[in-house]
Design goal:
about 160 residues; alpha/beta; 6 strands; about 25% helix; about 20% strand; binds zinc ion
């Protein structure tokens, strides 16, 4: 009889991998973010990526980041972020006490939804907007609401971020 494999991926690698995979579904030419919501006993409850709401065509609505198109529109009023999509995609009831894996630290608007949904822990990969007003507001709200946020490390070990 042989021993079990020892190089299997950790739960954190698994769920962050799913979050990144979800992000690959995004049609956004500049930003692809994915999220995955997990129960306390490590079951995937929901997933999401950044995109336009149902019925808002990926071919007709603008993907521009700046008002340089003839319609004078950017993507920002239309795009739903991955975290909000993951929360809204869930059909099972309460998300109280769950964990959210996301490839980019949540913006302030998603932070509000995360807090109100009862998600208790956010595991994020990139924090490339650290220090911006939206990022600082999100962290301030997480701190006030007691939502833990930890940066993902590929070793599977999570580093607690003190703020
Ligand atoms: Zn957001």
């Amino acid at each position: 009889m042989s021993a079990k494999r020892s190089d299997y991926i950790s739960w954190d690698e698994y769920f962050m991998g799913v979050a990144h995979l979800s992000g690959m579904r995004s049609k956004d030419p500049n930003t692809q973010v994915g999220a995955c919501i997990v129960s306390p006993d490590n079951k995937i409850l929901s997933m999401g990526y950044n995109g336009f709401p149902k019925g808002c065509s990926d071919d007709e609505f603008p993907w521009e980041r700046e008002n340089d198109n003839d319609r004078n529109l950017t993507k920002y009023p239309f795009v739903t972020h991955s975290e909000l999509n993951a929360i809204l995609n869930y059909r099972g009831g309460s998300l109280e006490g769950t964990k959210l894996y996301v490839s980019l630290f949540p913006c302030n608007e998603c932070a509000k939804a995360i807090i109100q949904a009862g998600i208790r822990t956010v595991v994020y990969d990139s924090d490339k907007y650290a220090g911006t007003p939206s990022n600082r507001a999100a962290k301030r709200m997480f701190d006030a609401a007691g939502v833990n946020y930890v940066q993902y490390r590929k070793t599977g070990r999570m580093i607690r971020i003190e703020v």
